[in-house]
Structure to design on (558 residues):
């Protein structure tokens, strides 16, 4: 794995100046590496990690377990991609176990998500069933704990 | 007439100097906004699964004393860990003692082996407790300097030159706090021959051994003929980020471990059981955590060493530990003045090198354990501070 990518995965800010400084490289070299990662699609994009409870936009998130019929040629891929292309879908995974796809969906409100499931998702030919779970409260988001912990950090400022 | 409390303090304690770190700590504590590169512990919090193991043990009511030597399961895991990574095999039933950190292990080891007046050779700059621990055990500590031009690595010739009648032990710490100096196999073999020739016991504090960035860490006890004359001291504070758990251990010949255990049982009874439970979890499932933290320390080391050299503070690349030890000679300040002025004027805390013995003069210890953001900001401030105190023409001449 490239050292730029490793650093980003550790949570470093995606700023070429900062990355170059930390890694002891030229800024241009880091920018070239970021371009290469984007071009070969190792790096798909940038998204900030929000605390949904602080960003009160009223959006509703749901996780949907979807059973689908595999096809003679292509297995689950065509249907999975058809579902994944919807704007409402944040993530879509083929799963082992009791269902086939796990689909993360967001909508402006509960009605919008419900409409997406019942009118779009469930009506696709090949979708056998859906089971929708609405997210109630987040505790951890992309490795960030969201619940205020009264963690007292009182390390000695100088120690032997 | 008021009581003269001083008269009750034992002479050898009264004569013991306060740690230079302690004095500096008092100053830094008044500046909570300062960025501290003065911490002698990991910036990482203990991995959650290790903390969770301690919570689980607490929930299960495991709150009793343990065997003085430590839980047998922990000693078995220690035996396996040491044999797998850097040492010989030790018998968990008789050759391992679990202690309250390596600090207790050092104290107990010295008290177990020293008669009044026995001499101990140790390398300097070094961890602050070595010489005082020898003194408190009524021994005589003899410092042996390591050199900046060698990256403060082990210098067996210096030990040989410093030997004098009455020497009983060598006290080693490689990788070294505060210099990051290490000891390669060739030099350790020469030191081992010296120890055998002079019939010296070796007390080897290898607390930073997992944090060796170049080459392999060689435990002196693993060299031929050395297991029988080495007390290997190690613990969980650094590699597993468990400083507050206060858990360490000593491995060595059964007779010496038994002698140490006698002191340990009367003054400590046993290490806290919750810390022992956490230590088991760390050894069984913590290898990935150690690797992850080591990788980050490695990159932070490369960054801080590069920055110090760019700034004009000559800095060798520490091969182990998480400390850089740059020279501040080019500033014309003493290490103590440098640290105090840097704190006051740039709000960055580093530790004066003389806090680690006179051989640390003209250097400061800067931990590269803190986050990148803090390292970047701290080194930028140090650069501005140096530019302010060193005229450009003088800097160019350095």
């Amino acid at each position: 794995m490239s050292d730029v990518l490793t650093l980003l995965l550790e949570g470093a800010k995606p700023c070429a100046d900062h990355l170059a400084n930390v890694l002891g490289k030229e800024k241009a070299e880091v920018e070239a590496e970021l371009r290469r990662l984007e071009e070969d699609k190792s790096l798909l994009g940038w998204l900030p990690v929000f605390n949904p409870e602080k960003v009160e936009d009223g959006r509703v998130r749901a996780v949907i377990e979807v059973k689908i019929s595999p096809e003679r040629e292509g297995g689950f891929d065509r249907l999975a991609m058809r579902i994944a292309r919807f704007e409402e879908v944040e993530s879509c995974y083929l799963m082992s176990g009791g269902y086939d796809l796990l689909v993360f969906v967001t909508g402006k409100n509960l009605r919008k998500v419900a409409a997406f499931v019942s009118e779009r998702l469930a009506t696709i030919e090949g979708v056998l069933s859906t089971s929708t779970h609405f997210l109630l409260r987040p505790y951890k988001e992309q490795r960030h704990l969201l619940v205020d912990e009264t963690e007292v950090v009182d390390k000695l400022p100088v120690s032997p | 007439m008021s009581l003269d409390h001083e008269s009750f303090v034992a002479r050898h304690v009264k004569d013991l100097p306060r740690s230079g770190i302690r004095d500096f700590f008092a100053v830094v504590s008044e500046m909570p906004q300062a960025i501290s590169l003065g911490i002698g512990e990991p910036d990482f919090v203990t991995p959650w699964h290790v903390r969770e193991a301690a919570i689980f043990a607490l929930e299960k009511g495991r709150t009793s004393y343990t065997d003085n030597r430590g839980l047998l399961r922990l000693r078995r895991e220690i035996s396996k860990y040491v044999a797998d990574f850097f040492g010989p095999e030790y018998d968990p039933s008789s050759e391992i003692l679990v202690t309250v950190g390596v600090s207790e292990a050092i104290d107990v080891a010295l008290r177990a082996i020293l008669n009044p007046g026995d001499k101990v050779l140790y390398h300097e700059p070094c961890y602050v407790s070595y010489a005082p621990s020898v003194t408190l055990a009524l021994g005589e500590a003899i410092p042996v300097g390591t050199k900046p031009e060698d990256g403060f690595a082990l210098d067996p010739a210096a030990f040989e030159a410093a030997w004098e009648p009455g020497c009983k032990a060598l006290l080693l710490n490689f990788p070294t706090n505060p210099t990051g100096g290490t000891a390669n196999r060739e030099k350790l073999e020469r030191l081992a021959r010296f120890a055998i020739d002079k019939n010296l016991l070796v007390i080897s504090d290898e607390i930073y051994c997992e944090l060796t960035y170049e080459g392999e860490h060689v435990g002196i006890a693993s060299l031929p003929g050395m297991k029988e004359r080495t007390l290997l001291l190690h613990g969980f504070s650094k590699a597993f980020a468990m400083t507050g758990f206060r858990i360490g251990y000593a491995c060595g010949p059964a007779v010496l471990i038994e002698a140490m255990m006698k002191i340990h049982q009367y003054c400590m009874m046993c290490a806290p059981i919750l810390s022992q439970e956490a230590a088991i979890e760390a050894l069984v499932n913590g290898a990935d955590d150690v690797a992850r933290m080591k990788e980050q320390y490695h990159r932070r080391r490369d960054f801080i060493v590069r920055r110090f050299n760019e700034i004009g503070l000559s800095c060798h690349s520490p091969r182990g530990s998480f400390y850089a030890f740059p020279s501040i000679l080019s500033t014309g300040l003493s290490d103590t003045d440098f640290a105090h002025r840097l704190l006051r004027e740039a709000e960055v805390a580093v530790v004066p090198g003389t806090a680690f013995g006179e051989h640390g003069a003209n250097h400061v210890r800067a931990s590269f354990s803190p986050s990148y953001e803090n390292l970047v900001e701290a080194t930028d401030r140090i650069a501005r501070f140096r530019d302010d105190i060193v005229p450009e023409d003088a800097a160019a001449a350095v």
